[in-house]
Amino acid sequence: MRNGKTRNGNGNGAATHTRAPARLRAQHHPTARLPITKTYKVFIGGKFVRSESGRYYALKHPGSDQTLANVCQCTRKDFRDSVVAARNAQGTWAGASAYNRGQILYRIAEMLEGRDEQFVAEMVQQGIAQAAAQLELIASIDRLTYYAGWADKYQQVFSSVNPVASSHFNFSILEPVGVVSILCPPQSALLGMISTIAPSIVGGNTVVALAPRDLPLSAATFAEVLATSDVPAGVVNILTGERSELLEQFASHMDVNAVIYCGDDEAERGAVRAKSSLNVKRAISYDRKDWLTDDAQNPYFILDTQEVKTTWHPIGI
Amino acid sequence: MSNITEKQGAKTGRRIKFGTDWSYAAAPETSKIRIEPRYDLFINGKFVPPVKGEYFDTINPANEKKLAEVAKGTAEDVDKAVKAARRAYEKTWSKLAPKERAKYIYRIARIVQQRSRELAVFESTDGGKPIRESRDVDIPLAAAHFFYYAGWADKLDYAFPGRTARPVGVAGQIIPWNFPLLMAAWKIAPALATGNTVVLKPAETTPLTALKLAEAIRDADLPPGVVNIVTGAGETGAAIVNHPDVDKIAFTGSTEVGKSIQKALASTNKRYTLELGGKAANIIFEDATIDQAVEGIINGIFFNQGHVCCAGSRLLVQEGVYETVIRKLQDRMQTLIIGDPMDKNTDIGAINSKMQLEKIEQYLKIGQDEGAQLWQTSCELPSGGYFCRPSLFLNASQSHRIVQEEIFGPVVAIQTFRTPAEAVEKANNTPYGLSGGVWTDKGSKIFKITSKIRAGVIWANTYNKFDPTSPFGGYKESGMGREGGLHGLRPYVELN
């Protein structure tokens, strides 16, 4: 365990002992068992790593200054590494059959369902009320199932055969835009992230997502679900850290094809959109705070990270 | 049969000579058009002089003579136009029954058809493109675009499953000089069909057909202010982009300007679609029918003097057929007739402007300086006007600027490849992704390669085909959004 000073010196948890929930707390009794606390990692190219920089920020127990976890404070280098992983994975992922992608999304839902208690407990730890956490988890599982089902359908609904006036067979299909960077909704531990990642990956994109700064633990644990759900390495990369440090890089990276900005900060959104112009990146923004409602899921979220390709074939002998 | 002749020809060194013993009698288009000495802005259903009273000349690029002077719209004029568009949007157009909206657009389509020859002559006179192309491609497609989108106006409930489409409001539209009337139709038709009103700026070198279209719109009795045409240069366009009461920007033009628009709109709530540059690879496989492929290469790069964002400006030839393709291509290029755009025999007309000709000539120099080998046809060029010989570069490399950058002229850069994977790698290795071409007789190979090319429009065994029902638009730095077809409605609606 790292407990020295961080590079930028803001990990002031060095001298603080973690004040965990009762279950994890040391009992200071000769026969008591000391529980194992978790080192949270980020997920890059299918591997669990700490930030290349060694930096971390101390996530506090809600309403206390006791440290709940030392969370990786990812750097621009971590982001660039993630983009390389996402780019390398994109062709194969997009080439997987729609049926296969649908099954893998469904598998993520299965794995999440199987770890429901852990996720609820972790959300509660981060300050979410028990009932709300329960609701968010259920909605997250259902959302994955919802998009799993779209895998082999959105193409049928939104493609077209175009009756051109000349002797050609002409059709338009959807293709993934490529690598998508996502600044996840800041107020949602799990559902917001899943609601933006799922429609991107079901359409064949690969993603690099930045977990919400103050609710990062569910995202980090969700990476463990992804790692055991047959999701190929690099398809989803999950970073934790300070949004303000990474925001511009998420929008300016020349090998990222689309950026999804979640939030309602006009200055942040403006900066993301301005940097996107460097490579004509598609800049998508969602300002919703509530991801529980029915209108937070629909196939138009999939279309946001799709391109339309039109192909012309002569008809003749 | 042709193969045998081909081999014999190669053996004996005999080649059919085109272009030397053949001469064509002039076949001038004789339709007369009436060009006014001066054209004003079309705002709120009327032609009005610009607030500041300034005008600029539009010239005929084939002889450099002045055709007319055209109003230079300023921010004040743009403001008037946007106000007229807003009023029209709120008072009439967004409230009109959709089927009535449709009928207005059908009317425009019909008037364009009725005046098609006149419009074609205007187009070729102002822009330099061969009359054969403006007559057979630009104008009929423009009419078809209005006709196609007219029918969507009262059927939008079927276009977006599970959603209700609402118009966006006032659309600011900026179009280029390569297909002046056609681009106006691409922009205006879907905007009107979905219930928006329009402020459109044509390119400064080709404003006339947009103003003739304004006459058609006036004659179709559209409510005043539904379509406003403001002529001018870059500053006029910037005034549209930056006007606070414009809800949506649709831009077609260079990637450089597109990026600056994207940046300018970053802190606003305006929507935008961008149709930008391209550097398409036209890929010729060994199993292609070579003669057809050569025709496709010609059409791909020399159509409209190569002033086409989706032009096949890079040629990738599989090694085994390289020599044959180059020989046939050069033979075919020698037959191309360069000259008076108004002559019906002309294949390649005038370069649109002096500035563009200089840019092309600069690239011809850059290509040679970088080590590629320039080959041009030996045709005579007219003594006046802006003309450029059909040109190809042999031995071009992926890193050459003539391979990476859009030239927008009759210049094709040629590279070779061995494997399909190499062809795909080279095709995708530019910042652009607008279009591409694939030539092979093997169906499965077509599907494999077309699915690997990162571009919005792919032609297999054909090139440069367009249709109002067919979505058009780019991947990567070639822009975002689609024009044409069902997908072309999306940029002009809010979904509820």
Protein model, in words:
The complex is a heterodimer of chains A (317) and B (496). Chain A has 317 residues and is α/β, with parallel strands linked by helices. Chain A has one domain (76-162, 169-310): Aldehyde Dehydrogenase, Chain A, domain 1 (3-Layer(aba) Sandwich). Chain A contains 10 helices and 12 strands. In chain A, the strands form 4 sheets. In chain A, strands 9-8-7-10-11 form a 5-stranded parallel β-sheet, sandwiched between helices. In chain A, strands 5-6-12 form a 3-stranded antiparallel β-sheet. In chain A, α4 (130-150) packs parallel to α6 and α8 (243-252) packs parallel to α9 (266-276). The longest helix of chain A is centred in the middle third of the chain and has 21 residues, at 130-150. Chain B has 496 residues and is an alpha/beta fold. Chain B folds into 2 domains: 38-276 and 475-495, Aldehyde Dehydrogenase, Chain A, domain 1 (3-Layer(aba) Sandwich), CATH 3.40.605.10; 278-460, 3-Layer(aba) Sandwich (Aldehyde Dehydrogenase, Chain A, domain 2), CATH 3.40.309. Helices cover 39% and strands 17% of the residues of chain B. Chain B has 15 helices and 20 strands. In chain B, α6 links the parallel β7 and β8. The model of chain B is unreliable at 1-5 (pLDDT under 50). Chains A and B meet through β6, α9 and β12 of A and α9, α15, β18 and β19 of B.
Assembly state: heterodimer
Q: Any idea how many domains of chain B? A: 2
CATH topology of chain A: Aldehyde Dehydrogenase, Chain A, domain 1
Largest sheet of chain A: 5 strands, parallel
Radius of gyration of chain B: 23 Å
Q: What is the name of the CATH architecture of chain A?
A: 3-Layer(aba) Sandwich
Spatially, the strands of the biggest sheet of chain A line up as 9-8-7-10-11
Total count of strands of chain B: 20
| Secondary-structure content class of chain B | alpha/beta
Strand fraction band of chain B? 15-25%
Strand fraction of chain A = 15-25%
Q: Using DSSP, what is the number of strands of chain A?
A: 12
How many helical elements of chain B?
Answer: 15
Largest sheet of chain B: 7 strands, mixed
CATH architecture of the largest domain in chain B: 3-Layer(aba) Sandwich
